[in-house]
Amino acid sequence: MKASGVRVAGGYALAVVVLACARPTSGSLLAALPVAALGEALRLWASGHIQKTHSLATGGPYAHTRHPLYLGSVLLALAAGIASLSPIAIAALCAYFVAFYPVVVAEEQAFLRGKFPLEFAEWERHVPLFLPRPLPGGPRSSRFSWGRVAANREWRTALALPALFGLLWARARYFP
Questions:
Q1: Which residues lie below 8 Å from residue 162, measured CB to CB, with a gap of 6+?
Q2: Which of 59-63, 91-95, 131-135, 153-157 bottoms out in mean pLDDT, i.e. has the lowest?
Q3: pLDDT at res. 127
Q4: Is the pLDDT of residue 1 over 70?
Q5: Helices 155-174 and 68-84, interaxial angle, to 10°?
Q6: Residue extents of the structural domains in the chain
Q7: DSSP string spanning 73-98?
Q8: Least crowded by CB within 10 Å, which of 29, 36, 133, 172?
């Protein structure tokens, strides 16, 4: 099984660990909201540009970082850590990303390099792997589409985010 498949299953287990270990407060939930909103906004923007396996997305956030979806996920995990106020949850989140993301990113890089060799080489020259550049760089051929957001099922993450915050709020209120 590819690391990407294990990553998804591991994500569900991670959510259980975070919720079980969390000790959120109203303040931690409020502090986490802007980080979560930024992470999901980035994921929505990226989802509106990507056509998986059909073309190389190089516009929008893909002109700043080659992996904006993963960067958005890291921001969402950071928000979960802030909201949880739990060193165990934060350690689990960090371990998850260290264990899975370098492998998944390498798999994706290899796939894209093989599928779109010329476009990828040009894009790779101008756009950093993960940490975004402030100004867009490289070719910018993709355009945003809400249809792509729907096709990429980003609605699942967009719905999971308020559900997670709702569960953390309930944990803070009823099970401090």
A1: none
A2: 153-157
A3: 97
A4: no
A5: 10
A6: 3-171
A7: HHHHHHHHHHHHT-HHHHHHHHHHHH
A8: 133
Strand-pair partners of 51: 55
Q: Tell me if 46 sits within 8 A of 69, measured CB to CB.
A: yes
Mean pLDDT of the chain: 93
Task: Please report how many Cα atoms fall inside a 13 Å half-sphere around the Cα of residue 107, on the Cβ side.
Answer: 11
What CA–CA distance (Å, rounded) separates 165 from 105?
28
- Residues 68/46, Cβ–Cβ less than 8 Å: yes
Question: Residues 63-88: what's their mean pLDDT?
Answer: 96
β-partners of residue 55 are: 51
Q: Does residue 4 register a pLDDT over 90?
A: no
pTM: predicted TM-score of the whole model, two decimal places = 0.92
Q: Out of 1.20.120, 1.25.40, 2.40.240, 1.20.1080, which CATH number does the structure's domain 3-171 have? A: 1.20.120
